[in-house]
């Protein structure tokens, strides 16, 4: 029997994010880089939205590993007001090829928020249906990759599309790892 679980949690950032049009927020980039490395090692997968100072994250994996990571997040100074929206057993992952997928606060999310009567991304006001729809967006949206123009993503069903997706993931992971390394270097100089 599988011991796989899925949790969906939300939190508020303790850092002041800069405008989304400037690209991925540096603290979020460092979180992604660390998550991708650590989650791969722990056998965890998931996806993350970040917008308007709030995180919405889905984590999937073995129950003990998910619980261990959530306990660490409770102590992470970059998060406050952590709240689990759902926890359920699963038979298989919805994010099997993502150690941590990142989808920005984009037009489809803004459209969903508008349909739900919300002007900002505030998952503390999401009902069960909104949570379900956000999870669907997380599963279906292409990961954020500012170096790739959206026109380049057409035809993803073929082998070239898969290669492009993998290259974007590798580039995003490498860029995030460089941000983490740069932050560590700067911190050691202080």
What does this structure look like?
The chain is of the alpha+beta class and 190 residues long. The chain has a single domain (4-189), classed as Alpha-Beta Plaits (2-Layer Sandwich). Helices cover 44% and strands 22% of the residues. Strands 4-1-3-2-5 form a five-stranded mixed beta sheet, sandwiched between helices. A hairpin with a 2-residue loop joins strand 2 (45-51) and strand 3. Helix 1 crosses helix 5 (159-189). The longest helix has 31 residues, at 159-189. The protein is globular.
Quick overview of this protein structure:
By secondary structure, the protein is of the alpha+beta class. It has five helices and five strands; from the N terminus they run βαββαββααα.
Oligomerization:
single chain
Structural class estimated from helices and strands: alpha+beta
Relative strand content = 15-25%
User: How many individual β-strands?
Assistant: 5
Q: What does the average pLDDT come to?
A: 79
Which helices and strands, and how do they pair?
Blueprint (H helix, E strand, L loop, with lengths): L3 E10 L12 H17 L2 E7 L2 E9 H13 L3 E11 L11 E4 L2 H9 L12 H13 L18 H31 L1
Parallel strand pairs: 2-5
Antiparallel strand pairs: 1-3, 1-4, 2-3
Helix pairs in contact: 1-5
